[in-house]
Amino acid sequence: MISDRCRTFSEDAAGYGRGEGCGAVVLALEPRVVHAELLGANTNNDGRTTSPITKPNGPSQERCMRAAWGQLLPECNFVEPHGTGTHVGDPVEAGGIARILGSRATGRALPLPVIGGIKTNLNHLESAAGMAGLIKVLLLQERAVASPFGAGHWQGEHSSFP
């Protein structure tokens, strides 16, 4: 579904809102100033599942997140999810984040980290969406603040967050 705004994890999420943008970061082996250190990354593909492309595969997303976070789970205090603002995709992604980070692989419940959502500010930037999220996280880390959602409250009945 196409919407005028992306309302990630919101009760009034109405679907995908398209935006335009681009971004770049410079990676260096020995930079003069270190802004961030990338400690984990992963990617996967749902190409072989029976789910349509518009419905993400929860177990596949969880495997991808676990592989990316690795041993860093107990230290995670901020998550910038994909968060497209759809009633199908958001609950799958939120549920995976809650299951993984709620236990932090320790077997005991811990509070969820701060959840971001750059698409509520910019809409979905297509191939630049991941870069927008990365740049946002770098700026938040540098300034030691968490930014609010641009389209309202993220916690809705369909969000799957506790």
SSE map:
Elements: H1 58-69, E1 78-79, H2 89-103, E2 114-115, H3 119-122, H4 129-143
Parallel strand pairs: 1-2
Helix pairs in contact: 1-2
3D architecture notes:
The protein is mostly helical. The chain has a domain of 86 residues: Peroxisomal Thiolase, Chain A, domain 1 (3-Layer(aba) Sandwich). Helices cover 28% and strands 2% of the residues. It is built from four helices and two strands; from the N terminus they run αβαβαα. It has a two-stranded parallel sheet with strand order 1-2. Strand 1, helix 2 and strand 2 form a beta-alpha-beta unit. Helix 1 packs across helix 2. The mean pLDDT is 79. Keywords: Phosphopantetheine, Phosphoprotein. Pfam families: ketoacyl-synt, Ketoacyl-synt_C. This is Ketosynthase family 3 (KS3) domain-containing protein. InterPro entries: Ketoacyl_synth_C, Ketoacyl_synth_N, PKS_Beta-ketoAc_synthase_dom, PKS_NRPS_Biosynth_Enz, Thiolase-like. GO terms for molecular function: fatty acid synthase activity.
Classify the secondary structure makeup into a structural class.
mainly alpha
CATH architecture of the domain at 58-143: 3-Layer(aba) Sandwich
The end-to-end span amounts to 26 Å
Please give the oligomerization state of what you see. Answer: single chain
Largest sheet: 2 strands, parallel
Strand order of the largest sheet: 1-2
Number of strands: 2
The CATH topology name of the domain at 58-143 reads Peroxisomal Thiolase, Chain A, domain 1
Q: What level of helicity do the residues show?
A: 25-40%
Can you tell me the CATH class of the domain at 58-143?
Alpha Beta
- What is the averaged pLDDT score? 79
Silhouette = globular
The radius of gyration over CA amounts to 16 Å
SSE string, helices as H and strands as E: HEHEHH
Task: Count up the helices.
Answer: 4
CATH superfamily of the domain at 58-143: Thiolase/Chalcone synthase
Domain Ketosynthase family 3 (KS3): 1-162
Keywords: Phosphopantetheine, Phosphoprotein
InterPro entries: Ketoacyl_synth_C, Ketoacyl_synth_N, PKS_Beta-ketoAc_synthase_dom, PKS_NRPS_Biosynth_Enz, Thiolase-like
GO molecular function: fatty acid synthase activity
